[in-house]
Amino acid sequence: MLAYVARRLVAMVPIVILVGTIVFLLIHLTPGDPVVIMLGPDASEEAVTRLRTELGLDAPVYRQWTRWFQRVLVGDLGTSIFFGVPVTETIRRHLPPTIYLSALAILVAVGIGVPAGIISAVRRGSALDQAVTMTAFLGVSIPEFWLALNLVLLFAVNLQLLPVAGYAPPTAGLAVSLRYLVLPAFTMGFVQSALIARMTRAAMLEVVVADYVRTARAKGLPSPRVTMRHIFPNALITVITVIGIIFSVMMGGNVIAETIFTIPGLGQLLMSSVLRRDYPVIQGIVLLVAAAYVVINLLVDVAYALVDPRIRY
Amino acid sequence: MERVRIPLAAVLISLLVGVPAGWAQAPVPVRGGTLTVALSADPPALDIHSTTAYLTEIVSWHVFEPLFTYDRNYQITPMLAEGYSVGAGGREFTITLRAGVRFHNGREMTSADVVASLQRWVKMATVAVPFFRDDIEAIEARGPRAVVIRLRQPSGVLIAALAQPIQLAGVYTQQAADAAGTQRITDMAQLIGTGPFRFTRWTPGQVIELERFDGYAARSGSPDGYGGQKVAYVDRLRFVIVPDVQTRINGVLTGQYDYAESITPDAYGALRVDARARTLILRPYGQPMAVFNKRRGLFTDRRLRQAFVASLDMGQIMAGTFGNPLMFRVDGSLMFRESPWHSREGLEPYNRRDLGLARRLMAEAGYRGQPVRWITSTAFDWAYKPALIASQQLQEAGFNMDLQVLDWATVLSRRANPDLYEVFSTSFIFSPGVEPPIQPVILSGTWPGWWTTEEKDRLIGRLIREPNLEARKRIWTDVQRLYWEDVPGIKFGDFFNLAVARPQVQGLTTRPDLFFWNVWVQR
Question: Is there a contact between B41 and A33 if contact means CB atoms under 8 Å apart?
Answer without folding.
Answer: no
